[in-house]
Amino acid sequence: MRKHTNIEHKNAKQEKEILFVTTAHKRYDTRIFSKECSYLKNKFGYNISLLVADGNGNEVTNNIRIYDIGASANKFKRYSTTLFKTFLFIRKLDISVIHIHDPELIFISYFLKKIGKIKVIYDVHEDFHLAMIDRPYLNKFLRNIIATTFMVFENYISKQFDFIITATPSINKRFKKLNRSATINNYPIINELNSSKIRKKQQQICYLGSIDLNRGIAEVVDSLTMVNGQLKLAGFFDPISVRNKLIERKGWEKVHELGIINRDEAASLFSESIAGICTFHPLSNHINSQPNKIFEYMSSGLPVIISNFPIWEKIIEKYNCGISVNPLDPKSISDGINYLLNNHEIAYNLGQNGLKAIKNELNWDKEVEKLNTIYKKLLCEII
Question: Domains in the chain, ordered, with CATH?
Fold first, then answer.
């Protein structure tokens, strides 16, 4: 078998178009756009484009061509009309590899692979089977049926793809039994969330991300009645009715809402906070997860207050970068918050330990090298 030269690989990177596809995420999603697309394009020279479905139009940003097939009016249309439009759009392009990011895309990707001879990478952000089991708005029997049925199809179709990328080692345990796979951890970009301005620390903790009851926001709000400080809350309520329930709680008077903020604003928020909190409930899809917000807090020098899940506790035990609490107990949460708010030097030292861990080990620069290796191999298989 003839060996491929470095020149051949360089030409393959430039000639073979790789299309990242998402119908569920925003076009500037941190993992998809800022990390994977931008690094593969601008650091390694791959021919990268991105297909989204948000209705904001086509554009070229950060050297990435973004195609937009239009927003969906509701989830039903997203799972039907939008998927069909995505299928037809990709068929018209001269694509060598599609890199999909949503479970709903596996079905059309399977057919695209069969009829178009393209390679497919499935990027698994979460175990959808476990996430579905935890959905509170569905009947328990029904959600178990849906989750199990989807897992059967996902397992079968995943075997037909060319590579599976998983966001955590726990997800990879399942998929490595099915196909070639690797974990590309969603670690932060070094210095991305470090504010250029030195801000005075306020008597506050912060939370950034999707805000829902399963992520422990109600217990955190209740804990604030026993805390000498406030919570800066950034993100979107999922659903918006969550906010209506929270504002009736006594601890809400110590919540300062920021809404959806950009990355620069997030850096400013972190720079003025004492600690970052992430106290998800002990659900199937949470206890083995690696929430990106934990590592983002660490990357800005903040100590973390996290749920006492064994996998999460291993992080703070290894790097001495925070404390764990019972996410279902407001008193336990308040004790953790007060400990850091009342001991600024300890909080600072824990935060510096976390920052050191990010710079030395838990960063995107190391993870993207693994992603580059995967692409080098796949493109050589196409040549």
Answer: 6-186+364-382 (3.40.50.2000), 204-360 (3.40.50.2000)
